[in-house]
């Protein structure tokens, strides 16, 4: 479903990676690994068509993502470094407004259930600026609970989360994969996602010591 | 969709009312300084009123422009808006409309009250209000292009003024001109029609270059 061939990324004068190719089918997860600055986030942004690739092509269901445009974006769920939640709004308002912007039907009860699941029960009506870093991340990840879109691109989803929340998110990704979805994620934490066919991709120097055999 | 964006931005603005109130007070104070500085000669005040009110409206609009996209950019929401299934131009249009409701409409409401300080006749006050009502959407639309182009630039606020204020000149000329024409006994219709054309252009064409600039800023 998601195919990348010969991707190259250049930041400033430096080439971060070149010749990156992979293929991902329904139910599979791509685990992008590499040192800091090896271009993991850049690769993820390329997969979302936020950053154009210098060379190479990304195809979704056979069509290049640049051409598919809205058709591709309606199947894509991206969670970046930043939480994309509004500090002035409450977790509930954030969740509802992001669902409305993504044109997904989400009623208030489902949203409250999702927030309870990620451990924000009792905080639904508190402006997000009063939440801790980890709680903000949880508020952002609550989007994944009812997320039906096929391709999840998650940049460091486990950052700032406690072990229980990490397990919860890994479970959500597992459920998504079982339903035939795809996931691409980066993380520096070794977390096993249940029931997942995992592909790994190493970015950066083709240094043999970096690459687990 | 448009409603979702407008609703979201209005709700955010209501949570940060200090911004709206600050821009309104800026408008009130700048306009009120002129009669104090120039002296109470009704003829002179009447002559300068359209220009003063319109320039103050431009400057007050400029105050709120830098934050049009900057907050969304900082917290990552802008990426999500870009990745939404709708064309980015439609989302920008929603943000422009919300910006006008929050930053432009209060100026329209305040203008007739402030115009009284300049001894404007009721006809002139009416035309002033109508010209602002037609012209301020153009300010929001054109301003959005500048706000998107200067997104993420250090010292973007000053650059934004340098970029956008020259583009506001036609709106200023026809806006103030409409009131001038009323004062001098000519009808304001011609000026208002041209102002309307600018506003339509500003609101419905500006979102597309703005969307393109936002995509570049996000790369």
Automatic annotation (TrEMBL), chain A:
Q: Give the Gene3D superfamilies listed for this entry.
A: P-loop containing nucleotide triphosphate hydrolases
Entries under SUPFAM superfamilies matching the protein: P-loop containing nucleoside triphosphate hydrolases (SSF52540)
InterPro entries reported in the protein's UniProt record: AAA+_ATPase (IPR003593), ABC_transporter-like_ATP-bd (IPR003439), ABC_transporter-like_CS (IPR017871), ABC_transptr_haem_export_CcmA (IPR005895), P-loop_NTPase (IPR027417)
- What are the GO BP annotations of this UniProt entry? cytochrome complex assembly
SMART domains cross-referenced by the UniProt entry: AAA (SM00382)
Keywords from UniProt, A to Z, are: ATP-binding, Cell membrane, Cytochrome c-type biogenesis, Membrane, Nucleotide-binding, Translocase, Transport
GO MF, one example: ATP hydrolysis activity
PROSITE patterns, from UniProt? ABC_TRANSPORTER_1, ABC_TRANSPORTER_2
Protein name per its UniProtKB record: Cytochrome c biogenesis heme-transporting ATPase CcmA
Q: Could you tell me which species this protein originates from?
A: Candidatus Accumulibacter meliphilus
């Amino acid at each position: 479903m998601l195919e990348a061939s010969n991707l190259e990324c250049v930041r400033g004068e430096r080439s971060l990676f070149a010749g990156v190719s992979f293929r991902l089918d329904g139910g599979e997860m791509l685990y992008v690994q590499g040192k800091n600055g090896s271009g993991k986030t850049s690769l993820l942004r390329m997969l979302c068509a936020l950053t154009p690739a210098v060379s190479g092509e990304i195809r979704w269901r056979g069509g290049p993502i640049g051409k598919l445009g809205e058709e591709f974006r309606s199947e894509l769920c991206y969670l970046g470094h930043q939480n994309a939640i509004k500090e002035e709004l409450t977790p509930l308002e954030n969740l509802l407004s992001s669902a409305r912007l993504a044109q997904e039907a989400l009623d208030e009860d489902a949203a409250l259930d999702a927030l309870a699941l990620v451990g924000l029960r009792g905080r639904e009506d508190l402006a997000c600026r009063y939440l801790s870093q980890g709680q903000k991340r949880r508020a952002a990840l609550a989007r994944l609970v009812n997320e039906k879109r096929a391709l999840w691109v998650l940049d460091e989803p486990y950052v700032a989360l406690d072990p229980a929340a990490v397990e919860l998110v890994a479970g959500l990704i597992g459920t998504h994969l079982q339903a035939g979805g795809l996931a691409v994620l980066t993380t520096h934490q070794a977390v096993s996602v249940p029931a997942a066919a995992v592909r790994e991709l190493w970015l950066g120097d083709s240094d043999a010591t970096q690459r687990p055999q | 969709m448009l409603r979702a964006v407008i609703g979201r931005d209005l709700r955010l603005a209501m949570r940060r009312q200090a911004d709206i109130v600050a821009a309104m007070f800026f408008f009130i104070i700048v306009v009120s300084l002129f009669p104090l500085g120039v002296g109470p000669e009704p003829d002179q005040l009447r002559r300068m009123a359209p220009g003063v009110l319109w320039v103050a409206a431009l400057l007050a609009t400029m105050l709120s422009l830098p934050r049009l996209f900057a907050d969304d950019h900082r917290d990552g929401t802008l990426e999500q808006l870009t990745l939404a299934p709708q064309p980015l131009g439609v989302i920008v249009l929603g943000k422009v409309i919300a910006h006008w409701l929050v930053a432009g409409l209060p100026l329209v409401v305040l203008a007739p009250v402030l115009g009284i300080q300049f001894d404007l006749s009721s006809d002139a006050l009416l035309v002033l209000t109508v010209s602002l009502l037609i012209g301020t959407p153009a300010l929001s639309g054109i301003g959005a292009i500048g706000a998107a182009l200067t997104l993420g630039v250090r010292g973007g606020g000053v650059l934004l003024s340098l970029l956008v204020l020259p583009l506001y000149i036609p709106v200023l000329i026809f806006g103030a001109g409409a009131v001038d024409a009323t004062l001098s006994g000519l009808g304001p219709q011609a000026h208002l029609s041209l102002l309307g054309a600018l506003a339509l252009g500003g609101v419905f064409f500006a979102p597309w270059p703005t969307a393109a600039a936002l995509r570049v800023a996000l790369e």
